[in-house]
Amino acid sequence: MTFPFLDHSYLDGHGAGVLPLSSGSANHGLGQELLMNDSGALSPVSLISHGPFGSSNSHTTSSAPATPAPTLVSATGSKLEIELVWDKSVANAPSGFTSAVIAAAQTLVSDYTASSTDIVYINVGWSEIAGSSLSPSALGESESYGYLTNYSTVTHALANDGYTFTASNEPTNGQFFVTSAEAKALGLISGTSGSTTSVDGYIGFSTLSGTGYSWNYSSMSTSGTQFSLQAVAEHEITEVMGRVAMEGTVTYNGVKTYTPLDLFNYSSPNVLSLSANGGYFSANGGVTHEGNFNNAAKYGGDIADWASYSSVSQAGTLSSGEDPFNAFAWPGYKNTLSADDLLEVAALGYHLTSAGAALA
User: Fold this and answer.
1) Regarding predicted confidence, which is higher, 134 or 29?
2) What is the mean pLDDT of the segment spanning 245-251?
3) Would you call 145 helix, strand, or coil by DSSP?
4) Whole-angstrom Cα distance, residue 1 to residue 15?
5) CA–CA separation, 324 vs 310, rounded Å?
6) DSSP assignment of 245-256, as one string?
7) Can you tell me the distance from the alpha carbon of 101 to that of 53, in angstroms, rounded to the nearest whole number?
8) How many other β-carbons are positioned within 10 Å of the β-carbon of residue 69?
9) Where are the domains of the chain?
10) How many other C-beta atoms lie within 10 A of the C-beta of residue 48?
11) Rounded (10°) angle between helices 97-111 and 229-240
12) How confident is the model over 223-247, as pLDDT tens digits?
């Protein structure tokens, strides 16, 4: 059997734009709203309502399946909530699809919390994302609204969580793209801004029709030709939360553009990678070598994902099984969030709950 090399997502549609701020909320150091397409190109967009494409039931007939109502996922002791806004395409999804996505969101809100109430609004599609078809080779894709800001704003916000930045090649003159969900976690916008009709981002999943593979909707473990839908949903949801990278490979208005995660991608101690050639995650200036990032320049896929082109274990984040944050996936493996996964998302402005800290 040959590996399918189905990519969880591409860099990433992140249809980046800016959420309308709620009344009285602050916009701390955030500027231009942008749209990032599937190829990573940036373009300006007007201030619009970021609602689900076609999620309204206004045209539902007695013979057509109804679109599920939005699902708010929360956990006792966590101030992070995820509101899943089901696109009308989900009405045609198989039984078990919504419960698998909900389980993924439940895992994340159980492992993470926020300084204040943060609600992440995500539109969920089946066989589509934001009204468009998925790439033929993708298990899932994500798109995110967000903001352009600068190095000072990002590092000041992350300093509130105890992170310091002293690498010899910090991109102080570049600009940074921050997803709106991460902007909430960093305290740059109100954590309660947005709504079910003004979402933070979109995720979509392949039907796998005609590929010879299928989804496991009930477990993180798979067998034979199955992939875990919950694992891929964890992958895509965390991208909307900010687990994305640009590494200056994209320029906008002639300025190299980065993301907060790029400040945790090292090539050696005190030296940031600042490339799509891979590197390793470190939350302490490159001293501790955590998961290896994907060499997107060589293999394709996302810079922010773990390396996994030739081997499931290449990422070095699990001793057995497959990591949900890998760039490429294979069927038949157990999928479990690793300690590196938990620490990586925690570096983006989120805080581990006691349950998450115990796993990390």
Assistant:
1) 134
2) 92
3) coil
4) 36
5) 16
6) --TT-EEETTEE
7) 18
8) 12
9) 9-359
10) 13
11) 50
12) 889 999 999 999 999 999 999 999 9
